[in-house]
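Give me structure tokens for this 242-residue protein.
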Amino acid sequence: MTHTYKITGMTCESCQEKVKQILSGIKGIAGASISWQKGEAILTMHEHVPTSVLQEALKPTRYQLSETIARVMPETISYETSWLQTYKPVLLIFAYLFLITFLVQAGAEFSWMLWMNHFMAGFFLVFSFFKLLNLEGFAGNYATYDIIAKHWRFYAYIYAFIELGLGLLFLTGVYPVFTNVFTLVVMSVSLVGVLQTVLNKRKIRCACLGDVFNLPMSTITVIEDGLMITMAAVMLAWMYMQ
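Here you go.
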């Protein structure tokens, strides 16, 4: 996997070589391409290396490494892979959620509102689970496109727990109005960053399943966020009409 970072403090080729030597020596770094003119470092990693580790390595120097600019899809991922193969993990998750949430009401009078409540609970619980498997990796990826996380990195860490909390709220059915309104706000904000990325045709990883699967950002991500927004809006409208 490849990450691009901003580097400040470099003024010449000597600085460039020094930064390259330091970063190349960090465990997990397979290669480093440094440009003092552009003020950036492109690092190829065997495994994800937290930004804090890179910053600590440069701490004794005057050079400072800031947030990730972009996270490029790993070399092992080809955009020529079939659509079905690329999005198989997401499609399987949605298939399981649809099946399980329909079966929950088997033998009883079917309620679309109850089904949506169960589906949203499953969605947020499952997706937060994958994010929490590698919270640091998810945060680094999410900060490359989310409009809040870009400027406030801590939000990327909070977001995984927001999804977990929403999943539990939908599952228990407590505070339904608050839960749906909060879902509308959070997912709408998330959708803005996703749309910007898709419309600009940036080839970066989608953070929806954390750092576990190498999924490219695409209209699938737009559909995911849009589906949650739509369901939350429908449930709010239904509650208002009761």
